[in-house]
Amino acid sequence: MKTRALALLFTIVASVQAVCLSAATPDGLNLLPQPRNVEMCEGEYFRFDPTTTVHCNIPQLRRYLSDYLPTFSWSSPRSRVEVRLNPSLEVPKEGYRLSIRPERVVVEGVDYAGAFYGVQTLLQFFPSTVYEGGFREACSLPCVEITDWPEYSHRGQHLDVARTFMPLEEIKEFVEHLARHKINRLHLHLTDDEGWRVEILSHPELTEVGAWRGGDSPIWAIYGSFDEKYGGYYTQAELRELVAWAADRCITIIPEVDLPGHSLAIGKVIPEVLCPVERDNSAAAGYDRRNVWCVAREENYALLDDIFRELADVFPSEWMHIGGDEVGMKQWADCPHCSALYKSEGYTDYSQLEAHFLNRVVEIVERYGKRPVVWNEAINGGNLTHDALVCGWKDMEACKKATSEGYRTVVMPGSWFYFDMRQSAKEMGHNWAGVVTPEKCYSVDLETLGFKESQIALIEGFEGAFWSELHLVGRETFECYLEYMTFPRVCALAELCWTPQSLRQWGDFELRLKAHGERMNAMGISYRHAAPPAPQGRQITPKMTVSTSMPMSRSEALDKLSVYANDWGYRTKRTCEDGDWILYEFAQPLDNVKVELTTGYRHVTRGLIPMGKVEVSIDGHTFRSVADLHNGSATIELSRPTKAIRLRSTATGNGESFVFLQYPIIHTLTK
Ligand code: ACM
Ligand code: ZN
């Protein structure tokens, strides 16, 4: 907020200098995110060569910069490149001035972040090889005067390390990439149904047991780790290392413990935290999928006190994310203690009970000097404290609701900001919020979207999200799935957060992004260039009948699948058991085709048959096994006339109470 308020003071300066910007930048500098004021100085260059000396009186930044420019002297204040703090610089927080003149380069930051971002902009003037580390070349830097500061104070990226564990080094590298794009907050989603990833010294069982799934863990395998015990967690020492690494790069890590829902993992470790409700688990092959904290159990708040006391000590961030999304409130309605509390408080909606729980958690985090962040559902009851910062994820309406009720809000609805969504219709990724392109994220304009001025004043910024359900499987196709999914969408997010709306234009950004690709290559970012190629051959839909041993939840399902209808597939009424089968019988034998067989959602490893066989039959009666299902899917080629294909489960249970059935995708084989 402060940044935005101060920004107004400088509007006049900005509008005058913006004239120079439009004349100078689009085809020249390719800076990204676009700085606010860029003034080119005609004709001259600063010559940078291996004898050039650099002086930086900020030790933390000197350490960072020496990775890029290692060969230069760091001691002399008369150096030709000078990086320094200047608290009296007339720019808001995080602002800087960069001056490149033939005789001297000066980067001045109003604070550490300002100096850091000035250095980031300076590095973009160098050949992209500067990002490979140890730059030793000579180059010419065009003369320029830049005065710059961010439009929004919250320039966030969320990272879900709960569904898929990511090694510390991978997170550090990600932080490095974010920092180069002037992102300043990493929202680290540390707990969820599938795992508890943060060491809590007073409750070591949370990670000893809760950080693992599959094998002998009480948490069942899901999302691509079906035949192994899979997981991992971060020790507090590792997290402190990450926090320090990120702080050097001006990134604050906001830890999230997702409460009171999304808590299956802790519920498997300490079952008493959940409501004591009886459930029929037969559809899930006996797996108890309750995941909501009991609001009425007083000991729960003592446990949460232990957890947040330790987290507050590890994470210096003023913010702690306490969750609040997607709570299965029926568990409260069924719980004798929660329903009694609901009645005694006079509540009329279970959202009020959610806020009741979260307000207790807010008291805890505030006791440890922190401020709460919540997902947008947390305000639905109308009784959540206004101390909370709201992450609006569901849709733009949720962000409008939060701001109209006076909550400071981070805008991050799935349809614009979820970078686990597909980048085109038929590639890896979720699609419940549609296809999310960099342009979609870039083009967010709050005014056009109908936010009033008073609402816009409460917007802290924007945040991209990377949920990692598919990360494990995605990595089989793209080694750096995280980078493939987040870049270049993070580039678009970065400029949305940094650059004023009046200076943002998609066509111009797209051109600069193209040039920025060379930098990302040098940074080692495996970013997405284009949609994967379409499969070879012609897709055909031969006459077919689909049947299964599993009861379907809709009566028309098998008929629809038999005519290749409904791309989403259809649910069964229960999970799979060992021996269950799905049979595809063809009216005419199939030959010389490639067949993609999928269980679960397409390109999403959920609701599938985790282990099984693909069997084919020449005569329609006797079957032979030709492949194993891998993550619920298999692709086979048929080179003999084949009357039927059968998928046979060798697993009981998939962590869900259903299986998704799909029609096969059949292509003629090109010779
Ligand atoms: C969310 O995507 N459930 C916050
Ligand atoms: Zn309860």
Task: Set out the fold topology.
Blueprint: H1 2-9, H2 11-24, E1 37-48, E2 54-56, H3 59-65, E3 81-85, E4 96-101, E5 104-109, H4 112-123, E6 139-148, E7 154-160, H5 168-180, E8 185-189, E9 191-192, E10 195-196, H6 205-208, E11 212-213, E12 230-231, H7 236-248, E13 252-259, H8 264-269, H9 299-314, E14 319-323, H10 330-334, H11 336-344, H12 350-367, E15 371-375, E16 389-392, H13 396-404, E17 408-411, H14 414-417, H15 438-442, H16 453-456, E18 459-466, H17 471-477, H18 481-486, H19 489-498, H20 506-523, E19 539-540, E20 544-548, H21 557-562, E21 570-571, E22 581-590, E23 593-598, E24 612-617, E25 624-628, E26 633-638, E27 642-649, E28 660-661, E29 665-668
Parallel strand pairs: 2-3, 3-5, 7-8, 7-18, 8-13, 13-14, 14-15, 15-16, 16-17, 17-18
Antiparallel strand pairs: 1-6, 4-5, 4-6, 9-10, 11-12, 19-29, 20-22, 21-28, 22-27, 23-26, 23-29, 24-25, 24-27
Helix pairs in contact: 5-7, 9-12
The protein binds acetamide and zinc ion (ZN).
